Amino acid sequence: MAEAVEDAVDEHHHLPADLATHFGEHCVAQPCVDGIPTVWVPKEKLRDVLRYLKHDAPARFELMFDLSAIDERTRQRRDGQPDSEFTVFYHLMSLSGDDDIRVKVALADGESVDSIESVYPVANWYEREAFDMFGIRFDGHSNLRRILTPALWEGHPLRKEHPARATEMDPFKMTPEFQKAQQEALRFVPEEWGMSRSGKHTDFMFLNLGPNHPSVHGVFRIALQLDGEVIVQAVPDIGYHHRAQEKMAERQSWHTYIPYTDRVDYLGGVMNNLPYVLNVEKLAGIDVPERAQVIRVMLSECFRIASHLLFYGTFAQDVGQMSPVFYMFADRERLFSIIEAITGGRMHPSWFRIGGVTSDLPDGWDTMVRDFCDYMPARLDHYEKMAMRNKILKRRTQGIGAYNTEEGLDWGITGSSLRATGHDWDLRKKRPYSMYDQFDFEVPIAQAGDCYARCEVRVAEIRQSLRILRQCVDNMPSGPVKSDHRLTTPPRKERTMQDIETLIHHFLNVSWGPVIPPGESVTTVEATKGWNSYYSISDGGTMAYRTRIRTPSFPALQQIPLISRGFMVADLIAIVASIDFVMADVDR
Amino acid sequence: MLFGWEVNWSYVLILPLAAGTLLAVMFLQWWERRLLGWLQDRRGPNRVGWFGVLQGVADGIKFLTKDDWVPPFGDRVFFVAAPVIVCASMLFVLAVIPFAPSFHIVDVNIALLWFLAMSSLAVYGVLLGGFASNNKYALLGSLRAAAQMVTYEVFMGLSIMGVVIHAGSFSLVEIVGAQEQLWFIVPQFLGFVIFLIAGLAESHRLPFDLPEAEHELAAGFHTEYSGMKFAFLMCGEYVAVIATCCFIVLLFFGGWLVPDFLGFLEPLVGEQFAGLFWFGLKVLFFIHFFVLLRAAIPRPRYDQLMSLGWKILLPLTLVNLLVTGFLVAWARWGL
Q1: How does A336-346 read in b/e, with b if 16+ C-beta sit within 10 Å?
Q2: pLDDT range class, residue A67, cuts 50, 70, 90
Q3: Distance (Å, whole) CA A383 – CA B263
Q4: Which of A237, A272, A477, B158 has the smallest number of Cβ neighbours within 10 A?
Q5: Partner-chain residue, chosen from A320, A327, A571, that has the shortest CB–CB distance to B299
Q6: d(CA A463, CA A103)
Q7: What is the C-alpha radius of gyration for chain A, rounded to an integer number of angstroms?
Q8: Which residues of A touch B215 (CB under 8 A)?
Q9: Burial of residue B2, with CB atoms counted within 10 A of its CB: 0-12 exposed, 13-18 middle, 19 or more buried
Q10: Within A151-289, where are the H helices?
């Protein structure tokens, strides 16, 4: 008993000071590889702790960055952590204080936990997701139902006992009854969402927009309650693009999971590899050579431009302008030819590796990139005239779908969309990774927070990315593109024929994959659509024990009902276009 | 005299004219797609025939062989009738268009009113088609179409009254004749601009394609249409474009008349085809303008379009009408 108290006192050293004074006796700190203070709190205290952190802590944690759970039942290496079968974790961020905290709650199987929707509204969907994936119930949640899997799905996919492969299950049969029941479950019943079918003077029309609609950028469904063409209420419905990325991470080696990450934000290409490999490198303690880091930056910025160009074009297209999207696709094609010359791939190169990149740059890469940097600004000026300065486009998008910084943070909005509200926070500046601190670029912001501002910021970011690209060409360091670390995968080949030790390493790291030391770590990057993070837990195996992918698009869609209320159907299309999401990034 | 019957030979024109128009539509839609492709850095349809000229034929065959589907949840009669109304009413308009001094089917003294009446009829096609589809997107499209076309009908009619005042007639032949000295584009510039906008709205093409607005309403009023019925709707739209351009030329750009400084070209064209040639050239110019506009401009919102119509264009039209009337009266009778 005395020992336990001593331990607890000892662990206070890892607790943030203010939390220790307020909740010290209840909390247990857990050291993590990423250095983010991680605190276990009893579930009764959870809401109090979070409310304190959001409103009263010296550094206010305005943003609930991530919420999910871990099935701990088969985990071996949990040194010093409280007993838990299912752990719910809350990753909070303080942008005013530039700080992070991870709060964990230990639960037994079948136990429920308080919903924190009242503290952080964005938790609504995250809690639904945790319920869907793990079967954890959240008391006091306003509408706890499945979100990613179909309503009639059996089991909770991220529980360890749930099969991950088709071969682990009986053959699937689509019977007419099954199909009918599934379709019936998709029927939109307004009453379930607290909507009435008629108002004081009108009968409402319910319009099922999607999942296949020209302007929803993938398979996304919004059930609309309409009064004429005016939106009374909108209910986004997601999950049509769900591919169990997080489950697959538990069945792939650390190395072979890299191609899966490319497909999370399928417009982001290697930008998706980046947080994943950075995170694994953090767990493994690998230092990446400078040349590899700059190459990573260069390709990531190429993809940022490609993604923003596509956004720009479809944004103009969705307000009815036909031509820009074609010009922008042509420019994107030039970019892909550079990416193809360097990586061999186009949209999904899967080119980053644990400890570096696949191979060195080909001859002539610098002239290609330089040509593009010379070519692009004039095109952007042209588009500026064509789209951004067009009066009709302005009237369609200014003042539509606006929110301020505080609302944005409440709803988990990050990246360019948050910067459109005048909030100057770019991870590349504030928490530089992969040598971003060595680059000279600005962080564009806009003030209005409406559809037009969101587009404006992204257009300005294309120019900044071009600046970064040029700096990459001008200052590309020489040296290896892969680390010498023994966990670098695939290991460097040159020396494998010299001695048996390196040969064995090479053989094992290629066949089984590297064994990453046990630990927990999260890495967040400024991805194309906002902040993308990978939270990996290693149990000391060749595969991740749990991988959590936090994507920027997921919370953005949750906000649609709020920012589209009272606008018209045409405005909703502009709002959806301005969010810049892809469904693969939402559903994972 | 033919078999003892009195024959007005201009009626013989009906068949070639209708067939010619449909053929023109076929090429026009290919040409528009080619042009858009060229403007947008891509190729457009270039596979069927020389430079893809036979694309329209290929499309026609596709339309003909497609399943002739009528939504079982819709209203069969009106669903089938709607494309016919749209296409037929637009073809009727062509009956009164004088392509050259004596090259027309009928020269009625109310030709202009006939045009307005027929284009109003086309609204019914769009309306009925949308309602009969019993589809929510189609319904929204039809609602927009009804409001938009009724609104723009009003000052489409009013905008050309200035021309009527100048010419003193509703007959198109006389209106063109009145432009011998000066094309009406000069005294009626405002009327021209408003007529152009209203014409765009009437033929519901981008930027005024709100009834279709594929980014918002899937395909709007014709969401449920396929095969030949869809072809008829498309045909109606293109004939409307042709008709609108014809009327722009007739009312404001002197129809078949040639400016004097181009008179030296007359021998090249040949005397009997000169009128047709100049008229066709002018019409083509405006058709291209419509295509260019489609490539360049985004789509305003439905309520913005309405407020543009009622708050800006309507007062402008009325002012134009009053001023024109006053000036003409002044010139004729003095103060």
Answers
A1: bebbeebbebe
A2: very high
A3: 42
A4: A477
A5: A320
A6: 38
A7: 24
A8: 214-215, 317-320, 573
A9: exposed
A10: 176-186, 245-249, 258-262, 270-284
What is the residue range of B319's domain? 9-333
pLDDT tens digit sequence for A511-521 = 888 889 998 99
> Nearest C-alpha of chain A: how many angstroms from B307?
13
pLDDT in tens, A297-349: 999 999 999 999 999 999 998 888 888 889 999 999 999 999 999 998 888 99
Q: For residue A573, which residues of chain B lie inside 8 Å, CB to CB?
A: 215-216
Q: Which residue has the tokens 């419509």?
A: B290
C-beta atoms surrounding A222 within 10 Å: 23
Q: Tell if the CB–CB gap between A320 and B213 is shorter than 8 Å.
A: yes
A107 contacts A88 by C-beta, under 8 angstroms: yes
Among partner residues B137, B218, B298, which is closest to A320 by beta-carbon distance? B298
Q: Which two tokens stand for residue A444?
A: 């564009």
* Residue B3 maps to a domain: no
Domain ranges of chain A: 2-139, 271-551
The answer as to whether B2 is a domain residue is: no
Neighbouring CB atoms inside 10 A of A14's CB total: 16
Mean pLDDT for chain B? 82
The CA distance from A214 to the nearest CA of chain B, in Å, is: 6
The CA distances from residue B240 to B21, B152, B244, in Å, are 11, 14, 6
Nearest CB among B143, B298, B302 relative to A393 is that of B298
Residue pair B201/B305 in contact (Cβ under 8 Å)? The answer is yes
Amino acid at the residue A19: L
Structural domain count of chain B: 1
Q: How far is CA A203 from the centre of its chain?
A: 39
CA atoms of B115 and A55, how far apart (whole Å): 69
Of B137, B297, B301, which is closest to A321 when you measure between CB atoms?
A: B297
E-assigned strand segments in A181-302 = 205-209, 221-227, 230-237
Instruction: Out of B41, B144, B214, name the one closest to residue A330 (CB).
Output: B41
Distance CA B264, CA B274 (A): 12
CB B80 within 8 A of CB B226: no
> Does domain A2-139 match CATH 3.40.190.10?
no
Quick check: is B38 in a domain? yes
Structure confidence at residue A545 as a pLDDT band (50, 70, 90): very high
The answer to whether B215 contacts A323, with C-beta atoms less than 8 Å apart, is: no
Rounded to two decimals, the ipTM of the complex is: 0.82
* pLDDT of res. B1: 47
Give the DSSP per-residue string, B24-41: HHHHHHHHHHHHHHHHTT
Q: Residues of B near A (CB-CB distance < 8 A)? A: 36, 39-42, 136-137, 140, 143-144, 206-207, 209, 213-218, 294-304
Task: Report CB contact under 8 Å: A320, B41.
Answer: no
Q: In angstroms, what CA-CA distances link B34 with A345, B47, B261, B293, B294?
A: 32, 11, 33, 15, 13
Q: What is the pLDDT of residues A218-249, one digit of tens each?
A: 788 888 888 878 888 888 888 888 988 999 99
What amino acid occupies position A81? Q
The closest alpha carbon to B254, from B302, B186, B322, belongs to B186
A531 min Cα distance to partner chain B (Å) = 28
- Kindly report the CATH number that applies to the domain delimited by A271-551: 1.10.645.10
Order of strands across the sheet that contains A86-94: A28-30, A38-40, A99-107, A86-94, A63-71
Residue B36 makes CB contacts below 8 A (sequence gap 6+) with A322, B44, B291, B294, B295
Q: What is the pLDDT of residue B267?
A: 67
Q: How far is CA A419 from the centre of its chain?
A: 17
Residues of B in contact with A387 (CB under 8 A): 298
Average pLDDT, chain A: 87
Which residues of chain A does B301 touch, with a Cβ-Cβ cutoff of 8 Å?
395-396, 568, 570-571
